[in-house]
């Protein structure tokens, strides 16, 4: 017997829509805005739903995940340590060897152009087939 709240067989885009709507506050607005920017930066991005309810954006591999917490929306780039970040968007998970994240708190705005450039760089890195390099 299937549970009525089962995610099995449902499109990831629908589940992400529900997550954004279900947040019902600034976090939903922030996650929705970042999702739009990801899609603008890479119209071929594929949305998936993994790890018991995490929105994931992929193109030749994982680009980033979008998680929501009580005080932040976190966008974690799978190979973030290998990406140039000239405007300093990465502000979390800076001590990791591979990943980097952007934490967005209530009232904060992320530079749209810089974020889209970061997404495009992540797409290019994945397309190149290069493995993420360890942060120095």
CATH class: Alpha Beta
Number of helices: 3
CATH architecture type:
Alpha-Beta Complex
What is CATH's topology name?
A: Aspartate Aminotransferase, domain 1
Helix content class? 25-40%
Task: Please tell me the overall pLDDT.
Answer: 91
* Total domain count: 1
Shape: globular
Structural write-up:
There is one protein chain. With 136 residues, this protein is an alpha+beta fold. It has a single domain (12-128), classed as Aspartate Aminotransferase, domain 1. It contains three helices and five strands; from the N terminus they run H-H-E-E-E-E-E-H. It has helices spanning 12-23, 26-41, 112-128; strands at 46-50, 54-58, 62-68, 73-77, 100-104. It has a five-stranded antiparallel sheet with strand order 1-2-3-4-5. Strand 2 (54-58) and strand 3 (62-68) form a beta hairpin. Helix 1 packs antiparallel against helix 2 and helix 2 crosses helix 3. The longest helix is centred in the last third of the chain and has 17 residues, at 112-128. The chain starts with 11 loop residues before the first helix and ends in an 8-residue tail after the last helix. Residues 1-5 have low confidence and may be disordered.
């Amino acid at each position: 017997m299937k549970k009525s709240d089962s995610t099995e067989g449902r499109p990831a885009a629908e589940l992400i829509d529900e997550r954004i709507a279900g947040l019902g506050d600034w976090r939903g607005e922030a996650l929705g805005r970042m999702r739009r920017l990801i899609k603008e930066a890479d119209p071929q991005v594929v949305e998936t739903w993994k790890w018991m309810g995490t929105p994931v954006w992929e193109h030749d591999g994982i680009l980033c995940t979008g998680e929501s917490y009580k005080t932040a929306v976190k966008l974690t780039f799978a190979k973030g340590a290998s990406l140039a970040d000239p405007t300093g968007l990465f502000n979390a998970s800076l001590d990791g060897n591979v990943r980097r994240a952007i934490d967005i708190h209530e009232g904060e705005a992320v530079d749209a152009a810089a974020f889209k450039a970061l997404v495009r760089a992540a797409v290019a890195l994945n397309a190149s087939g290069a493995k993420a390099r360890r942060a120095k």
